[in-house]
Structures are given as structure tokens and as C-alpha cells.
Amino acid sequence: MTANPPHQCKYLTRLDQIEQLDDQERAALELVAQRFAFRCNDYYLSLIDWNDPNDPIRRAVVPNLEELEEWGRLDPSDEQTYTVMPGLEHKYPTTVLLLVSNVCEGICRYCFRKRVFIRPQWEYLRDIPAAMAYIAEHREITNVLLTGGDPLVLATSKLADIVGRIRQIEHVQIVRIGTRMPTFNPYRILEDAALTDLIRRYSTPRKRLYVMTHFIHPRELTDVAVEAVDALQEAGAITANQTPLIRGVNDDPETLATLLARLSFIGAVPYYIFQCRPAVGNRAYTVPIEAGCEIVEQAKSRVSGLAKRLRFVMSHATGKIEILGKLSDRVYFRYHRAANDADSGRMLAFASNPQACWLDDYEEVTREHPANLPYRSYGPE
Questions:
Q1: What are the start-end ranges of the H helices in the chain?
Q2: Taking a C-beta distance cutoff of 8 angstroms, is the pair 48, 58 a contact?
Q3: Mean pLDDT split into 10-residue runs, the chain, 381 residues
């Protein structure tokens, strides 16, 4: 019996390679692709229902004229402020972020790091020894997050070199790999034994390697994608899923609930739902905060506790802020993790603004730390 040949994805970087688009569509969308790069493969495009002009998978990856609306910034979370050297960000004391790649298997239209593809030579880690020296010198760092681009676009040997160097730094306990590869090309995982060997080697009982998946819609959880997630888990990785709330993709409570439930079924624990960042070109994909909060809560009401452990957050310049909800005419937030430790756990209240898409769109009413809030006893007087 002969083994099945490896699956070869066909990569597309030009709109004229998408046969399902007619000449008029290509000509119109070329204006978008000239500004914001297009990249995908035939596997992911096969998930699209081309008879549906509003297909959510199409919306996630095929350019849209709405991207040309002038709105947002190239660096909406001010990552540059926390950049120590090209490709190394240190925003929170215990966590360092390494942009180890400037390429993705597919480019999501709602990407908040469009700048990586606009100026790819500036925005990724080139001096790995210097990065390792920095991490080694800062003993408060326990977590290293590999991102980009997509780390799994790298050759496995290069990824193994990076992870191996990190594992030589004793105080680093967790390595996280943020990737959309199980979604865009699960065969990359299933057909590379060296990759699962890497995980097996470096995910140990006391120092786990985490793979942060990025499924945004239930239809992405194909049989082969689930098999790829299982292969990562079998090798010893802990898997958790992050998704932004995206207009026209997963902003329906039933769709979002289905995604959360299915993720819990396969053990890719729902971790964060992100408010779509106000990056250039992202207005068409952004759900206002208060509407998003209602969608998330409705979705959570449809699933079990295992599927609703997530937090609805925004990655603001000042920290990761949890969106708690709306009560009467006020909207409440809490710093889940603050760049300034003094703000950690601090709560914020704002006057309702149904059009607000980012914290900066609100007028602050009050800011309190839980320790300063009045104590109320519910026991006997």
C-alpha cells in the first residue's frame, strides 16, 4: 500500500486567480488589493458559497470595497510604544510578544496589523539573539507569545530554533503560538511530523506550550481542521481560541453560539472575543461596542459553562480592557490587564454611546478601583 501524497495547497496572491469573480468585480476590487494585500489558498476558498454574495468566509478573506472607507489607524493599539526592538514588544511585565513572521497563510480583511504587510521589512523580529538576551535579562517574564504574521508559516526548523532558545531561559514558563494555520491550512500540521515532535519536546508537564487558534466561524471547523487541532493536542499542546467579533461574519448570536459550542466540544477553549480594533480599513468589519456586548451575552446564554469562559475584551493602548456590560445609561469596563500595574482591576464607567467602537469614543463618567468601592454587607445587620 502506498501512502497518500501530501496535500499541496495552491496559493493565490492576485484577484485574477479567483475564477469565481467576474471581470467587473476583479477590476473594482483591485483598488482594494493595491492598498491592502490579498493572499489565500484554494483550501480556504473552497469553504465559500460563491452563490451567496454575503458569505461570511468570503467576507473574511476576499477584498471588499468598504475597506477603502477612511477610518482608523495603522497601529490602533499603539504597539510601537511598547516595542523594545523591531519585532519585540513588552507591554505587560510578565509577557513578551515576538513577531517572528511577516507572512500569513491567508490575510484576513479585518487584520489589525495591516502595517506588517504594508512595510514587511520593519515589522518582524530579525535579531533573535538580541531578543533572547532581553528576555533572559528580565526575570519577570514568564510568558512569551510568538505571533506575526503567522509563526507556523516559518519552516519548522526555524520555529524549533526559536522555541528551543526560549526554553533555555529558565524563568520563562509558557510559550504561546498564535496561529490561524489550523483554519487556513490544516494540512501544514497534519503532514509535518517535525512540527508535532517540536510540541512533544517542548510542551512539558510543568512548562506547557499553548497554541492559540483563530477560528471565527463554525464553517471553518471542517473535519480536517478538527483533526489538525487534535494532532496539536495529542502532541501535548494546550489549545485555546481567540476571535474578534466581526460584522457580517460572526455578529449573529446564533452563529457565535454555535462557534463557541463547537470549540468547546473539540477542546479549543474559547478564550477571548475581541472588539475589532480600529485599524485602517476596518470600519466595515466593526460592530459598535454596546451592540457587540449584547450579541456576546446572547450567544453565551445559549451555551454551557465550558463554552462561555471567554472574556469580551479590547486591546487598548493602555491595556486589555474587559467589556462588562451596560446598565441603564452607563457602560462598564474593567482593566483585565493594564500596561500600568496601578490600573489593573480598575473599573471604568461611561455614558452610553451606541455608536462607540473603541474606548476613546466614550466620555468617562467615573473610574474606580475595586479596592476603593464602598463595601456592602449582605449578611445580618
A1: 23-35, 42-45, 56-61, 114-118, 128-137, 156-167, 181-184, 187-190, 193-202, 223-234, 253-266, 289-300
A2: yes
A3: 67 95 94 94 97 97 96 93 96 97 94 82 88 98 96 98 98 98 98 98 97 98 98 98 98 98 98 97 97 98 96 97 95 95 93 96 70 35 29
Query: SS in 3 state form for 245-275?
Result: ECCCCCCCHHHHHHHHHHHHHHCCEEEEEEE
Task: Tell me the domains of the chain and their CATH numbers.
Answer: 11-67 (no CATH), 79-317 (3.20.20.70), 321-381 (no CATH)
Cα 222 from Cα 219, distance rounded (Å): 7
Q: Which residues pair with 241 in a beta bridge?
A: 213, 270
Transcribe 55-81 into DSSP letters. Answer: -HHHHHHS--GGGGS---BSSTT-GGG
Grid cell digits, residue 11: 496559493
Read off the pTM: 0.93
